[in-house]
Amino acid sequence: LLYKPVDRVTRSTLVLHDLLKHTPVSHPDHPLLQDALRISQNFLSSINEEITPRRQSMTVKKGEVSL
Fold it and tell me: What is the spatial distance between Cα 51 and Cα 15, in angstroms, rounded to a whole number?
């Protein structure tokens, strides 16, 4: 349930990427779509960087005992 908002941003990022791919460079919305895609990707990167250390600290290697 906690991943739903992040999943929505991920899907929106993919939609923005596809939309940008099919929007001509001469279209007035092209720079705005580029900015929106960049912001969305930066947001996802910051979440990923924040979660990775926590995930690694919670992972127990095979044969190790977690206390």
Answer: 24
Condensed to tens digits (0 to 9), the pLDDT of residues 46-59 reads 988 877 666 556 66
Domain ranges of the chain: 3-51
Residue 46 contacts residue 9 (beta carbons within 8 Å): no
Q: How far is CA 3 from CA 10, 19, 38, 65, in A?
A: 10, 24, 21, 28
Contact (Cβ atoms closer than 8 angstroms) between residue 42 and residue 25:
no
Prediction pTM value? 0.69
Q: How far is residue 28's CA from residue 30's CA, in Å, rounded to a whole number? A: 6
Residues 6+ apart with CB under 8 A from 6: 44, 47
